[in-house]
């Protein structure tokens, strides 16, 4: 059984490990090798996630998926939408699962649980930015996300292109997800 709950400081190490492993598995070939090799779950990334979880980073809510036998197997973070040009209410910033738990419906439940916690308006809208070339874009399409924008940016210091997926009514998406 897997539960979805707000992360605590005690989850920082598990989150940092999943973050580093997922980056290396997902972004190999999409980001430069040195960006992926520089990641350091034991030090820099865990400090970053400890700060995020201790509430010093405002408006950044983190949820974990916790498996009864395997502990924390994934996490997602989100908050108020950070973009200026897109006016969606909320944004999912990160969503990463341990590889061996992909394809079991856990990503969808984690995404919907966090979105449900974040959305405040009855017609609240949602967006997520995905690296161009990341197969996760098909996950967002399967959830009904529409491609709404593209931008150039940087990720871990590398120049990248990203695609935004948007949902105009998050509550509708959550209701659909509950029954499928
Ligand atoms: C993206 C991710 C969170 C999806 O989680 P998941 O548990 O594997 O996905 P689910 O099993 O919940 O799938 C939900 C739906 O999306 C579809 N889907 C998921 N990944 C897909 C893919 N790569 N290609 C096509 N469809 C996909 C599923 O078929 C399913 O469709 P259905 O509801 O019609 O049956 C997970 O694969 C992951 O952690 N990937 C690596 C990290 C990453 O890229 N994160 C996103 C950064 S923006």
Average pLDDT metric: 92
Query: Tell me about the biggest sheet?
Result: 7 strands, mixed
CATH class label: Alpha Beta
Give the strand line-up of the largest sheet.
1-2-3-4-5-7-6
Shape type: globular
Q: How much helicity do the residues have?
A: 25-40%
Let me know the number of strands: 7
CATH superfamily: Gcn5-related N-acetyltransferase (GNAT)
Cα-based radius of gyration, to the nearest Å: 16 Å
What is the CATH T-level topology?
Aminopeptidase
Can you count the helices?
Answer: 6
List the secondary-structure elements in sequence, H or E.
EHHHEEEHEHEEH
Task: Name the structural class.
Answer: alpha+beta
Features:
6 helices; Aminopeptidase; single chain; alpha+beta; 7-stranded mixed beta sheet; 180 residues; globular; binds coenzyme A
Blueprint (SSEs and pairs):
Elements: E1 2-6, H1 12-27, H2 33-38, H3 44-53, E2 61-67, E3 71-80, E4 90-97, H4 106-118, E5 126-131, H5 136-142, E6 146-155, E7 158-167, H6 170-178
Parallel strand pairs: 4-5
Antiparallel strand pairs: 1-2, 2-3, 3-4, 5-7, 6-7
Helix pairs in contact: 1-3, 4-6
Question: If you had to describe this structure to a student in words, what would you say it looks like?
Answer:
The protein is globular. 34% of the residues lie in helices and 31% in strands. It starts with a strand and ends with a helix. With 180 residues, it is an alpha+beta fold. Helix 4 links the parallel strand 4 and strand 5. It has one domain: Gcn5-related N-acetyltransferase (GNAT) (Aminopeptidase, 3-Layer(aba) Sandwich). The structure holds coenzyme A (COA). The site of coenzyme A (COA) has 19 residues, from helix 1, strand 4, helix 4 and helix 5.
């Amino acid at each position: 059984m897997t539960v979805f709950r707000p992360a605590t400081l005690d989850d920082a190490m598990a989150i940092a490990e999943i973050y580093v492993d997922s980056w290396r598995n997902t972004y190999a070939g999409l980001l430069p090798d040195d960006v992926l090799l520089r990641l350091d779950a034991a030090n820099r990334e865990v400090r970053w996630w400890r700060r995020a979880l201790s509430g010093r980073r405002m408006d950044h809510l983190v949820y974990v998926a916790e498996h009864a036998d395997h502990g924390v197997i994934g996490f997602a973070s989100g908050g108020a939408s950070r973009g200026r040009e897109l006016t969606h209410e909320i944004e999912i910033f990160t969503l990463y699962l341990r590889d061996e738990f992909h394809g079991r419906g856990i990503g969808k439940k984690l995404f919907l649980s966090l979105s449900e916690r974040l959305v405040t308006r009855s017609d609240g809208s949602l967006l997520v930015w995905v690296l161009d070339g990341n197969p996760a874009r098909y996950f967002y399409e399967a959830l009904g996300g529409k491609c709404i924008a593209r931008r150039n940016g940087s990720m871990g210091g590398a120049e990248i292109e990203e695609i935004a997926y948007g949902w105009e009514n998050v509550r509708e998406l959550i209701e659909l997800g509950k029954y499928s």
